[in-house]
Amino acid sequence: MKTHTTPLGLRRPVVLLPTLFLWLACIGIHSYGQTQASLIDSLVKAYYREGKFEGAILVADAGKVVYKNGFGWANRERNIPATPGTIFRIASLTKQFTAVLVMQLVEARKIDLNGKITDYLPDYPKEAGSRVSVHHLLTHTSGIPEFDCPNCSLPDTLKKAYAVDDLIRQFGRGKLAFMPGSNFRYSNMDYFILGAIIEKVTGQTYEQVLYKKIIKPLGLRHTGMDAPGLILANKAQGYFRQGNHYSPDPEIHISNLHAAASMYSTVEDLLKWNQALYAKPNRLLSRQSLDTMFNKTNKPLFHLGYVGYSTWIYPLQLDATKKVIVHERRGEVGGFHSSLVRIVEAQQSIILLSNTGTPDSVGVLYELSTQIAKILQEYDRVND
Fold first, then answer.
1. Which residue of 73, 83, 86, 332 sits 20 to 30 Å from the alpha carbon of 129, by its own alpha carbon?
2. pLDDT tens across 68-120, in order?
3. Which of 288, 282, 378 minimizes the C-alpha distance to 61?
4. Going by DSSP bridges, is the β-strand pair 323-333/336-343 parallel, antiparallel, or unpaired?
5. Percent helix / strand / coil, the chain, rounded to 5
6. Where are the alpha helices (DSSP H) in 264-359?
7. Which of 88, 84, 11, 22 is nearest to 49 (CA)?
8. What is the rounded radius of gyration, in angstroms, for the C-alpha atoms of the chain?
9. Per DSSP, which regions of 25-180 are E strands?
10. Pairing relation of β-strands 224-225 and 263-265?
11. pLDDT, tens digit (0-9, with 9 covering 90-100), for 123-176
């Protein structure tokens, strides 16, 4: 067994089973006649055969889709296969949308990155709220405990419906764990609070602002906010897998995850989103705002190496001599796991959405996206 360190600083085991190990060993000796699509297809099929990936995938190079496919079942009970058009919960990929909405409001002078929580939510406890800035929330350096109450956790927030203000009041008003800006601690509460700030300064719901500012302008026809009992054509069911047994996700109040993790989308819509986010000229944000969001100054932030607003930014080692800068966002809720990777200079996007959770789903998606990145870069090198 080998381990890798994710951008979140967590060491996770990656088990390369015999078939998969042999395939990966052959990456560097493919012939000139093989295409990016055939190489990626062989790789993902190896992961699928070993029971390590089920869901949908899309890979784009310089804006052109070079591979997309679905593996396994969107709904096992109804025998509906997963396809690139399948709708998945995207969990914390939602945070990237939230960060853009915040930056749009910064440009409109309705939010100040140095503004404090109590500037926008005056009922928030002043001891913490007068110290924590919007910037701290965006970078998970606020010090606000996610669940500062006895015997409570994220699942507790999903057992019954909460208005966002009530959720923050009950689960996110504790004493600071550290001085804002002095440390990093990943917290969904940071983005719950950002969602509340968006609603406060616009006088609209988060969903309304999201639709008006992002979904409608970009034509994201299969993207939106999930809710209990929401019925959509092509919507995936989530599962947990142990061996050959699949257990459907229990019903949860997904809308409670609000601006942190409650959205759904498809790999095709997420490509539109990703392309729009990096387009020049840009319809979403000014270049200055994008540079701020993606931490253009590359200032190290603790164990993450580099962090932007809602996005992990780090150098990915492709071989002994080559590194590429990657922008990454991942998500996990129930059996759903998501990964959106952008190789910035080459304008390459790798989008993975899965509805089947396993003990190492996060590590597997990281490993799979890394291997696809190596294929893209090696193919470009060989064919230059």
1. 332
2. 999 999 999 999 999 999 999 999 999 999 999 999 999 999 999 999 999 99
3. 378
4. antiparallel
5. 40, 20, 40
6. 267-278, 287-293
7. 22
8. 20
9. 55-61, 64-71, 73-75, 80-81, 88-91
10. antiparallel
11. 999 999 999 999 999 999 999 987 766 666 667 677 788 888 988 888 887 789
